[in-house]
Amino acid sequence: MYHINHEGKVYPCRAKIRSCPYGKEWHAATREELYYKSMRFSPQVKILEEVKNEIAATGRLRSLYSLSNYIEHVTYPIETIVANLKYAIKMVEDENPKVLRDIWVDFVDLAGEYYSQVLRHGLDIVKFDVPPEIQLKGREIFNERYGGRVIYFSGETENSPSNMALKMFHSLEKEIAEFEEYRKFGLTEANKEGTLGWLKRDFYQFSHDLNTSKMLTRPIFYGNIEEAKEKIKQMSDYELLGLMMIT
Question: How are strands ordered across the β-sheet holding 10-12?
Answer without folding.
Answer: 10-12, 2-4, 27-28
